[in-house]
Design goal:
Layout: E1 2-3, E2 6-11, E3 14-19, H1 30-43, E4 51-56, E5 61-63, H2 68-75, H3 82-101, E6 107-111, E7 114-116, H4 118-121, E8 131-134, E9 139-141, H5 155-160, H6 166-173, H7 179-184, E10 190-191, H8 197-204, H9 212-220, H10 233-236, H11 238-244, H12 250-258, H13 263-274, H14 277-290, H15 295-312, H16 314-324, H17 342-345
Parallel strand pairs: 3-4, 4-6, 5-7, 6-8, 7-9, 8-10
Antiparallel strand pairs: 1-2, 2-3
Length: about 375
């Protein structure tokens, strides 16, 4: 079947969801979120389905994130019923992320090409039998601070649980990393060359029982020598990242980076100066809080935070500058990291709803 840019098949117990929105690099729309949720909810109790594969029909992208053009149009009042649709999108997307994270059957994500933002949310399942596959074309990031947002879709949860300060670095810079970095940071499990993906999928159709993860690891084993996580950028800069991003205060991180003449430190400082100052502060607070929360509570926190982002207008301005007008000159409020105060950060962590009325109150 094909529905709302999602193609689905079931063969020999293997259900397959293929993202197919070529005009938008598989950016997730509300109908796509609903289609994914509908299939996954039905399949978790379907005896005919033993495992799920999610992949893309596109040669260069798994999923570029949420449909930010839609966010911009809605925020400016360009769609009838727009505000309600925006609220529905984030509520349903985060509920989908929760479903995937706790999926009771092997969930196999084939992360070939661009995997960013919302794409990470539908890729990062922590179920023990699930597995994340990267290729030489994988380009992975949580780039939300670049558009005046924060690492959502459970980003606070999974970034805060990466080794050392890798998650803090990725969340506060929005930098893109490749397959070796993803493996090093435990954002992926195995590497398979893109040319071998058809053979991999064919092999999965013959797996019996619940041995999908082992079968994939065995298939990927001959390709380990083609990629070296220990020689990745994140591995090489790990000591520097851990030292500079260990602080719980953005000013301290900036001071630490500024005092380091290492080219990587200086480049990182330059990158952070271009991102939304407010959202860098908010994101650091989110990551630190999320380290002590379960996923459901992280997603409830993020649901409030995203409401506050659109109330403030930072996200709308970021999308305008980078995607709509493409002038690459966002007018951030405030304009610098030094101007952000605790009073500006606090509202992002003040719930927009009482607990009994929270749109994600039923997540557990």
């Amino acid at each position: 079947m094909s529905e709302q840019h999602i193609r689905s098949t079931i063969e020999n117990g293997l259900a397959r969801l293929t993202l197919d929105r070529p005009d938008a690099m598989n950016s997730l729309s509300l109908p796509m979120v609903r289609t994914l949720a509908e299939y996954l909810a039905a399949w978790q109790n379907d005896a005919a389905v033993q495992a799920v594969v999610i992949d893309s029909s596109l040669p260069k992208a798994f999923c570029a994130g949420g449909d930010i053009r839609f966010f911009h149009e809605v925020a400016l009042g360009g769609l009838t019923g727009g505000s309600a649709l925006l609220e529905d999108f984030f509520t349903e997307e985060y509920a989908l992320n929760h479903l995937i994270h706790h999926y009771p059957k092997p969930y196999i994500s084939v992360l070939d090409g661009i995997v960013m933002g919302g794409g990470m949310g539908i890729a990062q399942s922590s179920a023990s039998a699930s597995i994340r596959i990267v290729t030489e074309r994988t380009r992975m990031a949580m780039p939300e601070v670049n558009i005046g947002l924060f690492p959502d879709v459970g980003g606070g949860y999974f970034l805060s649980r990466l080794a050392g300060e890798l998650g803090t670095y990725l969340g506060l810079t929005g930098e893109i990393v490749g397959a070796a970095d993803a493996l090093y940071a435990d954002l992926a499990d195995v590497f398979v060359p893109r040319t071998e993906l058809p053979a991999l999928l064919a092999m999965l159709n013959s797996v019996k029982g619940n041995q999908y993860r082992q079968a994939i690891e065995d298939f990927a084993a001959p390709f380990k020598s083609q990629i070296d996580p220990a020689n990745s950028l994140l591995a090489k800069q790990r000591a520097l990242i851990d030292r500079h991003f260990a602080h719980d205060d953005v000013a301290a991180i900036i001071t630490s980076l500024a005092a380091d003449s290492d080219p990587f430190a200086q480049k990182t400082l330059e990158i952070m100066r271009k991102r939304s100052p407010l959202m860098i502060h908010v994101s650091l607070e989110q990551i630190r809080r999320s380290a002590k929360l379960e996923l459901a509570d992280c997603l409830r926190l993020e649901r409030t935070m995203v409401r506050r982002c659109f109330e403030h207008g930072e996200t709308v301005e970021g999308i305008r500058a980078l995607v709509i007008d493409k002038d690459l000159a966002p007018q951030w409020r405030p304009a610098t990291l030094e101007e952000v105060t605790p009073e500006m950060i606090k509202p992002f962590f003040t719930s927009a709803w009482p607990a009994y009325a929270h749109p994600l109150r039923e997540l557990s």
